[in-house]
Structures are given as structure tokens and as C-alpha cells.
């Protein structure tokens, strides 16, 4: 029961934060998690070359909404997914026909707001449910997306528990998607629980490393920085994601 209360508390702290792959949302989330497990927060500068990838600029959403006849009908303050992640800024009046071209919906799940990203390509747009989109009336809309892109750092967090051997069991999870409980927060919460449980083991044969990073660029950064150690010392590991379903429906996928 105490664990349930603790995890509910952590969930409530993390869920509202607007995260992306690089930016203040990641740092804020990692600082909260640091209160519960002993992670070291690492940083890699914007522009750093990692294999054939490059760390992008930090992105922060300041404001995003659609207004019709002076009434706000979609607001990112109420739903983090309302503006596509890494959207460019835009402020203008627009007719419905043109606006619909910049609205993303899920074609099959009519009630759901999709999560759409444009990390590495300049774009702007909004996300809403298909049901909401169908209710939009003909006319002129006022749209505003205010974002900030700047040089900064990609952040990830890592905690380590020592064992009796030199081999490592690597547990990793992602911490970049906003407002998606199963896809995103189930992994970090499970990782916190495993860290606290394994830390109480009196004898650990393997070393246990716990990684929280933004996908996919965060994983590539981590591999680049730790390539030799990973090749020589990793015994095995697991990626924790989408773990919030019913027990009978949980899946385990073996690596190649």
C-alpha cells in the first residue's frame, strides 16, 4: 500500500510535465526522479556528433492554442499533446480549409489525441481527436504556437548498483513523451521500483545499471559514450516500456 501511494505521487508529479527529446522538461523530470533513486544526470551539448546522428537543439513549448470567434477551442495548457512536438512558432489568422491541413488526428481511434513529432524537420501543427476535428465550423480561426529552440544539452540519468562480478545487467527506459501513462511513465515507475528492490539485496552477483533517456537520440548518445564498456561488460538487460496493461497482456520481446 505504501508503494502504491509513493508511485501515485511520482506519477502525479511527472505526468503534467511537457517533455521532449531535448529540453527543460527532461531535466525537470530527472530532478524529480533523483529524489527517489540515486541517478547521476549527464549532459551532452547541442550539435554533438554521435555516430551519424547529431544532438538537436533544445525545444520548449511556451504557448499553443486555436481560437474561434474569440473562444479558445484547443489549448496545450489543458493537453500536452495538442501541439506537435518540436513544432515551429506560428501566429496568424487562417481559414478552416487550410487549418485542417495542419491538424493531425488518429484515423481509427476517434476519441484519442495522437502524439505527433517533427524532431528533425521544420513543421508546425496541432493534434486533436477526429471527433473534435469533425465539429470544427467553417470560418476564420486565430492560431498561436509559441516555441523556443536554442543550443543547450541533451540530458539522461543513470544509477548504478555494484555487484560481485564485472558484468552488467542494463535496465533502461524512456523519459521523453509527455502525457502518455502506459507508453512513457510505466517504464520509469517500474525502473524506480526495481532499483529500490534490488538495492536491498544483500548479495548481488551482477552490477545493475539503470538508464533513463530520451529515445532514440538518447540511446545513441549513451552507446557512443559507453561503447567499450557496453561491448565488454554487458551480460544482459531489458528495456522497460508500455508496462501499464493488465498482467495477462504484458509482453516480452527477445532481442535479435
Overview of this protein structure:
The structure is a single chain. This protein starts with a helix and ends in a 16-residue tail after the last strand. It has 256 residues and is an alpha/beta fold. A hairpin with a 2-residue loop joins strand 4 and strand 5 (71-75). The protein contains 7 helices and 13 strands. The chain is elongated and about 70 Å long. Helix 1 packs across helix 5. The model has no long low-confidence stretch (mean pLDDT 94). Helix content is 26%, strand content 30%. The protein has a 5-stranded mixed beta sheet, sandwiched between helices.
- Strand order of the biggest β-sheet: 1-10-12-11-13
Say how many strands there are.
Answer: 13
Straight-line distance between termini: 38 Å
Structural class category:
alpha/beta
> Per the principal axes of the C-alpha atoms, what is the gross shape?
elongated
| Largest beta-sheet characterization | 5 strands, mixed
Q: Approximately what portion of the residues adopt beta-strand conformation?
A: 25-35%
User: Rounded to an integer, what's the Rg over CA atoms?
Assistant: 20 Å
What's the multimeric state?
single chain
The level of helicity is: 25-40%
Mean pLDDT: 94
Low-confidence stretches: none
Order of secondary-structure elements: HHEEEEEEHEEHEEEHEHHE
Total helical segments: 7
Amino acid at each position: 500500500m505504501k508503494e502504491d501511494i509513493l508511485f501515485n505521487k511520482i506519477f502525479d508529479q511527472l505526468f503534467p510535465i511537457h517533455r521532449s527529446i531535448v529540453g527543460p522538461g527532461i531535466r525537470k523530470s530527472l530532478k524529480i526522479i533523483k529524489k527517489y533513486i540515486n541517478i547521476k544526470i549527464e549532459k551532452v551539448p547541442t550539435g554533438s556528433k554521435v555516430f551519424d546522428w547529431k544532438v538537436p537543439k533544445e525545444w520548449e513549448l511556451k504557448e499553443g492554442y486555436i481560437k474561434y470567434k474569440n473562444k479558445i477551442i484547443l489549448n496545450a495548457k489543458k493537453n500536452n499533446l495538442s501541439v506537435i512536438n518540436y513544432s515551429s512558432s506560428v501566429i496568424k489568422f487562417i481559414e478552416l480549409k487550410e487549418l485542417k491541413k495542419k491538424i493531425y488526428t488518429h484515423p481509427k481511434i476517434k476519441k484519442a489525441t495522437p502524439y505527433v513529432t517533427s524532431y528533425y524537420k521544420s513543421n508546425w501543427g496541432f493534434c486533436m481527436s477526429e471527433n473534435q476535428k469533425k465539429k470544427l465550423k467553417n470560418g476564420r480561426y486565430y492560431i498561436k504556437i509559441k516555441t523556443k529552440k536554442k543550443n543547450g544539452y541533451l540530458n539522461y540519468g543513470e544509477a548504478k548498483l555494484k555487484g560481485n562480478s564485472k558484468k552488467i545487467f542494463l535496465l533502461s527506459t524512456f523519459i521523453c513523451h509527455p502525457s502518455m501513462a502506459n507508453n512513457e511513465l510505466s517504464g520509469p515507475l517500474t525502473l524506480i521500483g526495481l532499483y529500490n528492490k534490488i538495492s536491498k539485496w544483500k548479495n548481488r552477483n551482477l552490477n545493475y545499471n539503470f538508464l533513463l533517456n530520451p529515445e532514440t537520440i538518447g540511446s545513441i548518445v549513451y552507446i557512443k559514450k559507453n561503447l567499450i564498456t557496453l561491448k565488454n561488460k554487458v551480460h544482459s538487460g531489458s528495456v522497460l516500456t508500455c508496462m501499464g496493461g493488465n498482467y495477462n497482456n504484458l509482453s516480452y520481446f527477445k532481442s535479435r
